[in-house]
Amino acid sequence: MEEEMSKQWERLTLTEEEKEGVALKLQPTISTMRTNHFCLLVMIVVEKFINREAFKSTMSKIWKCDSWLQFSEVGTNKYLIEFQSKKDLDRVINGRPWSFDRWLLCIQPFNGSMSINEVSFSKEEFWIQAYNLPFDYMNQEVGIQIGNSLGRFIKVHVDERGIGWGKFLRIRVELDITKTLLRGLFINVDGKKTWVYFKYERLPSLCFKCGVIRHVKNSCSNQEGREGQSQYGAWLRAPIVRENELLFKKYGESPDHSPKSEP
């Protein structure tokens, strides 16, 4: 809705009075600037209107904040959320991705100098599991390379030696949710091509026709995906990883020398 209104304004011819505008001389109040530090912007990525009160009530229960939080509707399925506590704000930011009724909550940092129409809501962070890597390549450096091929690399789950042996290599990446998710890619190891496939933790609803989480034009443009077998599906979702499975734990040594791990 907001995007359509912006395009409509661009087509209009402004009057002289409208062009002249108003030069604002006021500065943001100190209280407003302080509040900026404990706010974030959220867009529910869904092509329909959602129940506002159900959303607010559900997310308040899921986040289990120690202090109060306040929702201000700033657009269609878009909210400015204010937290009383920085600890609660950080917990929500670090716990991404979140979803409501399987629809992604695209979270963006709050910038008081921007209007809601200037916020793109096109990026979100995910943990991605990379399967079928040779053991020698389950390490931090490979995680960085794969992460940057998917989007913007954030971190990789490895031990203090930089090794991530296990069923998969776990990589956190900021993805462009308006682009098709990569199901996998070939890596070239000593002239041998190996297919590495991906699964996405807490993956929300996406288009099974084109593999996109958020359609920019609010509808799928993939004509080929409308016929025949879907090229994307629920199999892209990673199985739930238990906390104890994320520990690189050694046995038979002093606890003081146990390797570090990143949840």
TrEMBL record:
It comes from Juglans regia (English walnut). PANTHER family: GLYCINE-RICH CELL WALL STRUCTURAL PROTEIN 1.8-LIKE (PTHR31286), ZINC FINGER, CCHC-TYPE-LIKE PROTEIN (PTHR31286:SF62). It comes from the Eukaryota. Residues 40-111 form the DUF4283 domain. The lineage of its organism: Eukaryota, Viridiplantae, Streptophyta, Embryophyta, Tracheophyta. It holds the Pfam family zf-CCHC_4. Residues 187-221 form the Zinc knuckle CX2CX4HX4C domain. InterPro entries: At4g02000-like (IPR040256), DUF4283 (IPR025558), Zn_knuckle_CX2CX4HX4C (IPR025836). This is CCHC-type domain-containing protein. Signal peptide: none annotated.
